[in-house]
Structure formats: C-alpha cells, structure tokens
Design goal:
Shape: globular
Largest sheet: none
Number of helices: 8
Radius of gyration: 18 Å
Structural class: mainly alpha
Number of strands: 0
C-alpha cells in the first residue's frame, strides 16, 4: 500500500512503540495533571509536531548527518539530557501545588513538549532505523509513500496521546484531592525526567 510492503506490520510496530515509556509520555501526563484537558491537548500537539519534524528531518538525511558527525550527535544528546534534567529538578524541588516542569498556559505546555521531543536524538536515529524496514524499493512512490507514512504516524500518535490525556484527566481530580499523593507523584515524575536525562546522556 503506497509503497509500504506490509502495512499491517507497519501500523502494529508503531503502535507497540507508542506504549514504550519515555519523556514524551511523561510530559503528556504531567501537563494534563497540571493544566487539565487544555494543557494536555496542547502537549499532544507539541509532541505530534515534534514527531513530524523528526520524521521529515530523517527523510531529508539529518540522521545520516548525525551518523557522519558523531560530535554533533553527542552535543545534541547532552543538550537534550540537560533540558530533561532541568525540568525534572524543578519538579523535585517545587512545593506541592506549584506548577513544576511545565508551565501554566497551553502555549508553554506545547513548547516544552515540543522541545522534549526534538532534543532527543535517539528519536531521529529510531526513525532512521525504523522507516527502511517498511519501504519497498520497487513499489516506493517517493513523496507519496513518505506522506502516507507521516499521516499514519500523526493519526496513530493522536489517538494514543489523546487516550493518555483522557485517562490522566479522569484521574487528576482524585489525585489533586490528596496533597500527599499529589506531591509524591510530582517528585516521582521529576525523578523520572532526571533519569531519562541521565539515560540519554550516557547513551543507554
């Protein structure tokens, strides 16, 4: 279909990858918990835009550039790690009820989730390794194939992310009603972000 030899496998593989824990999922949960549905949806669109930019950057050869210039890859990795650690530290040090890692307005949720996505060079390398598995050199239709892939990634990503936001929003009121639980989860989320940053920095 549109140059993808096994469309079903492409969809199944991407859906499974969406469920893997990462800073993007954590940003969705945090922004929804702090900003409600508006904050969560802003975070969703920030993540989706980041994914689309990474996809087309990969198509344009950015991943190959990072492979050719490992120092550039290392610099980007450390930049992303520092940003995640900074967000996490703000969450850990913030008092319960303070907006910690992701700020109050929907625009801030959008920008910070976008940055979290873009400052992860492993995401670029993922697309570089993932996309060729589902492209048939004979059936490939160039821009049509890539556009079809991008559209599927956007739709599947939106459905998944909206589900995460909806579930989080449903549970958020109960969590906020208990300051002890809310404070614990806030610091736990911050530690997770710091952990993601360290993992990214160490290249593991």
């Amino acid at each position: 279909m549109f140059g993808i030899p096994d469309y079903g496998a492409f969809v199944a593989a991407f859906v499974l990858l969406l469920f893997l824990p990462g800073p993007g999922n954590l940003a969705l949960i945090t922004s929804t918990g702090q900003g409600g549905m508006r904050g969560g949806l802003a975070s969703v669109f920030g993540l989706l835009l980041g994914d689309q930019l990474l996809f087309w950057m990969t198509v344009a050869g950015v991943a190959a550039l990072l492979q050719s210039y490992p120092h550039l890859f290392t610099a980007l990795r450390w930049l992303g790690a520092a940003y995640l650690a900074w967000l996490g530290a703000r969450m850990v040090l913030a008092k319960p009820g303070e907006g910690p890692s992701i700020n109050i307005t929907p625009g801030k949720y959008f920008k910070e989730t976008l940055l979290i996505t873009l400052l992860n060079p492993k995401a670029i390398m993922f697309y570089f390794a993932f996309l060729p598995q589902f492209i048939d050199p004979v059936q490939h239709q160039g821009l049509i194939t890539f556009s079809f892939m991008a559209a599927n990634i956007a739709v599947l990503g939106f459905v998944y992310c909206f589900g995460v936001v909806l579930i989080t929003h449903t549970m958020a009121d109960r969590i906020r009603a208990n300051p002890v639980v809310s404070g614990f989860l806030q610091k736990l989320a911050g530690l997770c972000l710091i952990g993601f940053g360290l993992k990214l920095a160490l290249g593991k």
